[in-house]
Design goal:
Length: about 190
């Protein structure tokens, strides 16, 4: 099964302060996160970059796996592949996020287009989100992979500020560190 690993920012683009995010990224020193919000702070875009000491194909297998996505993405509780192109170039996928008991579950479908092992493009098809577009781009750099993730998001409903701050300050870097950890462990097992 394939599934882009992208939804740690599900609720992330609402009301957090970009300066705080940059400060947190600098504290961690290993993940670059940038966020741009609309004036009402209820939609925007984000990008994040992480260096992973593993081959690109190893990272690819993780970011396109439903079971891995559920294990790595905070709040993602269901991942179902609904349809796959005969040549495997795209999939229609259903996600259910249960981020907190304060926020209702969010269900949506995305279309993921695959250009292995370098790019995954994601576009909302239907569901509770108004806008969801994103991508993963994987670049080889010697023995490492530089994974770059971008997302444009408009939930279409009000999101509590504390959830947004938590997602941006903790969950996105946490997801990227978990991806790096799993990829590097897999690389060690299959050099």
């Amino acid at each position: 099964m394939r599934l882009p690993l992208l939804l740690a920012l599900q609720f992330a683009l609402g009301t957090a302060c970009a300066a705080t995010i940059a400060q947190d990224a600098a504290q961690h020193g290993d993940i670059e996160v940038r966020v741009s919000l609309d004036p009402a702070e209820q939609s925007g875009n984000a990008s994040a970059t992480v260096r992973i000491h593993a081959r690109r194909e190893v990272v690819w297998s993780l970011i396109t796996s439903c079971p891995e996505s559920v294990a790595l993405v905070p709040g993602l509780v269901t991942c179902d592949v609904l349809e796959t192109a005969p040549d495997g170039s795209w999939q229609r996928i259903r996600h259910v996020m249960n981020y907190s008991w304060f926020v209702p579950k969010v269900t949506y479908e995305i279309r993921a287009a695959y250009d292995p092992p370098t790019r995954v493009s994601i576009e909302r098809v239907s569901g509770d989100l108004r806008i969801l577009r994103g991508s993963w781009v994987l670049n080889s750099d010697g023995d490492d992979t530089v994974a770059h993730y971008t997302v444009d998001l408009a939930p279409g409903f009000w999101v509590p500020q504390w959830i947004v701050r938590s997602a941006l300050r903790h969950d996105l870097p946490k997801m990227l560190r978990a991806l790096r950890s799993r990829a590097e462990a897999a690389q060690r097992q299959n050099p």
